[in-house]
Design a protein that fits this description.
Pfam families: GFO_IDH_MocA_C3. This is Gfo/Idh/MocA family oxidoreductase. InterPro entries: GFO_IDH_MocA-like_dom, NAD(P)-bd_dom_sf. By secondary structure, the protein is α/β, with parallel strands linked by helices. It has two domains: 113 residues, NAD(P)-binding Rossmann-like Domain (Rossmann fold, 3-Layer(aba) Sandwich); 155 residues, 2-Layer Sandwich (Dihydrodipicolinate Reductase, domain 2). Helices cover 35% and strands 25% of the residues. The protein is built from twelve helices and twelve strands. A hairpin with a 4-residue loop joins β9 and β10. α9 packs across α12. The longest helix is centred in the last third of the chain and has 20 residues. The radius of gyration is 18 Å and the shape is globular.
């Protein structure tokens, strides 16, 4: 089996590769020399490709795509031509233009994208009864202080990577849509900079959501935090149900990285994505709409 790591733009493909290395021959492409060096030091047997075209030459069995958001549509188009299973590290789009460009692609049923938290064992098996749900809440605690130093500036730039509202908000929206379904729209959004004054975006944010069923929801994004955790709460008249996802002593497993790659490998074997693209598209639309809402204020 041959898996192509197409881009190393974030930390996620490094984590993905540690799991994939036990299952497949790795081919890697990354234009940034320092990122590539870090990868090959950890995976000296990986074959290095000089271009995306070379990485895809000969038809890999699967592709993990991680490039800056503005480059995703073009890169994904090249991957789709191979027919290989593809996992696009989150988020696949951060602006309306990027999402419109994705909409023009022939995305097949072996393309997966989204937050790994959907596959976290503490959440994946949870099927909350939707009867009597009043509202839902997702709280995302993930520090964004690294961006305040200028690291990966494209992620923190609203017009490129969407900033904190999109890149961290995807975790909360993903969990709530996994629970209640994709018939959801943005009802409002707000963001603020409470601590990291050099950010291009924000370090705190909130999204208000409404499902077609009438259920309302809130996603809280706390980008100033000493600890990483994610919580989902379902409110009912008689009380609340809550799931909390934390890294613990095995973050690869407990945060869903391992489960995501397991799902990806099933796709490599021929299975369809466990998350239909229409659902991913709904999540991206909420996030893009939130970014637009803040820009218009």
């Amino acid at each position: 089996m041959r898996i192509a790591l197409a881009g190393l733009a974030t930390s996620h493909p490094y984590t993905d590769a540690r799991t994939l290395a036990g299952h497949a021959e790795l081919v890697v492409w990354e234009p940034d020399g320092e990122r590539l060096r870090r990868f090959t030091e950890e995976h000296p047997r990986a074959r290095v490709a000089a271009s995306l075209e070379e990485a895809l030459a000969g038809g890999p069995d699967g592709v993990v795509l991680t490039v800056p958001n503005p480059r995703v549509p073009e890169a994904l188009a090249a991957v789709l031509e191979t027919g290989a299973a593809c996992f696009v590290n989150k988020p696949a789009a951060a602006t309306r233009d990027q999402l419109d460009r994705l909409d023009r692609l022939p995305i097949h049923d072996r393309v997966l994208s989204g937050s790994v938290l959907r596959f976290a064992p503490g959440f994946a098996g949870w099927k909350a009864d939707q009867d009597g749900v009043l509202s839902v809440r997702a709280t995302v605690r993930h520090d964004v202080g690294l961006w305040a130093t200028g690291y990966n500036a494209w992620q923190d730039t609203p017009s490129e990577g969407g900033g904190t509202l999109v890149t961290m908000g995807v975790h909360g929206v993903e969990l709530l849509v996994a629970l209640l379904g994709p018939e959801v729209r943005l009802a409002g959004a707000a963001g603020a900079t409470r601590h990291y004054g050099t950010l291009r975006s924000e370090d705190t944010g909130v999204l208000a959501l409404r499902w077609g069923s009438g259920v309302t929801g809130v996603v809280e994004i706390l980008g100033v935090s000493d600890e990483e955790s994610y919580a989902v709460t379902v409110h009912r008249r008689g009380g609340d149900e809550q799931v909390v996802i934390e890294p613990g002593d095995d973050p690869v497993r407990r945060l869903g990285y391992a489960g995501t790659i397991e799902a990806f490998l099933e796709m490599v074997g021929g299975a369809p994505s466990p998350v239909p693209w229409a659902e991913t598209r709904a999540i991206l639309d909420v996030l893009v709409s939130a970014r637009e809402h803040l820009a218009a204020r």
